[in-house]
């Protein structure tokens, strides 16, 4: 009996959605100037938009994956399609009890967008595989010198499978990139300095952990000023690992090769961990012919929590773009927000 009732509810829901879509289409073609009809059209279109939530899968369940789940749970227009982990449902964390946990995204149903909470160096592989399924992807790829080549690579795959990829969408690169773009627009001539930290860099820390002989690692970013940084890397070594070999491997890695880097061996990295981070963006430049325009943007943040929030708002924006690959500066900022477009304009402009 319960199954029959559920079937009726599903049928009624589908009928309601079809009816509303039909009414909306009629209203789109109706050339009447009636205030009543215009209002009815607006209300029905809003109902149609609100009926279907965006189904998002979280790929990877480390620090960023956990905060991504929290951000999705807090978002009014999303529902969690499931979590993709290497171990699948084995040793499933208690907070995932209500969600499907799988090893392969193809085991999940009706996924609209995959949020890649994976190490940067595995992003391209995961993105290509998932885009080939016709599923949108968003990621926080953070090797700045490789972003344009990744964009070209994923753009081809995304267009071939009618999907959207938005890359390098954490807070830097990502939301900071949008701020830098805005500052350069309002002062076209000048210099922008991006000063990170002090704080833990997740990307750099993950890169060190991947080096042979490293049991655990923490990479701290220390701002020296004018966009120059010092990397303080604390490593806990595997038994028998040679510190000098590990140190050389770290300093030659693409994450560290351009910065002053100090590697320090410690007995326990966990005793040093703090997820706090921050950034100070400064631009001094010229607006028109007027010099000495000074702008500053500053924030102190929980690193993985902010990265996750940016990923979720970009996942929302991916549903509004044409097939292809984008960075955040190419996406209309209003597409990052949930809600009615006209109401957002009235509220924010």
Automatic annotation (TrEMBL):
GO biological process: diaminopimelate biosynthetic process; lysine biosynthetic process via diaminopimelate
InterPro entries named among the record's database cross-references: Diaminopimelate_DH_Ddh (IPR010190), Gfo/Idh/MocA-like_OxRdtase_N (IPR000683), Meso-DAP_DH_C (IPR032094), NAD(P)-bd_dom_sf (IPR036291)
Record GO terms (molecular function): diaminopimelate dehydrogenase activity; nucleotide binding
Domain Gfo/Idh/MocA-like oxidoreductase N-terminal: 54-137
Signal sequence residues: none
Residues reported in the UniProt entry to bind substrate: 221, 231, 277, 303
Domain Meso-diaminopimelate D-dehydrogenase C-terminal residue range list: 170-228
Catalytic reaction(s) noted: meso-2,6-diaminopimelate + NADP(+) + H2O = (S)-2-amino-6-oxoheptanedioate + NH4(+) + NADPH + H(+)
Keyword set, alphabetical order: Amino-acid biosynthesis, Diaminopimelate biosynthesis, Lysine biosynthesis, NADP, Nucleotide-binding, Oxidoreductase
SUPFAM superfamilies per the UniProt record, alphabetical: Glyceraldehyde-3-phosphate dehydrogenase-like, C-terminal domain, NAD(P)-binding Rossmann-fold domains
Residue positions binding NADP(+): 61-64, 85-87, 140-142, 169-173
Pathway linked to the protein: Amino-acid biosynthesis; L-lysine biosynthesis via DAP pathway; DL-2,6-diaminopimelate from (S)-tetrahydrodipicolinate: step 1/1
Gene3D superfamilies linked to this entry: Dihydrodipicolinate Reductase, domain 2 (3.30.360.10), NAD(P)-binding Rossmann-like Domain (3.40.50.720)
Broad class of enzyme this protein falls into: oxidoreductase
Pfam short name (any one): DAPDH_C
Family of this protein: Belongs to the diaminopimelate dehydrogenase family.
Subunit structure: Homodimer.
Protein name per its UniProtKB record: Meso-diaminopimelate D-dehydrogenase
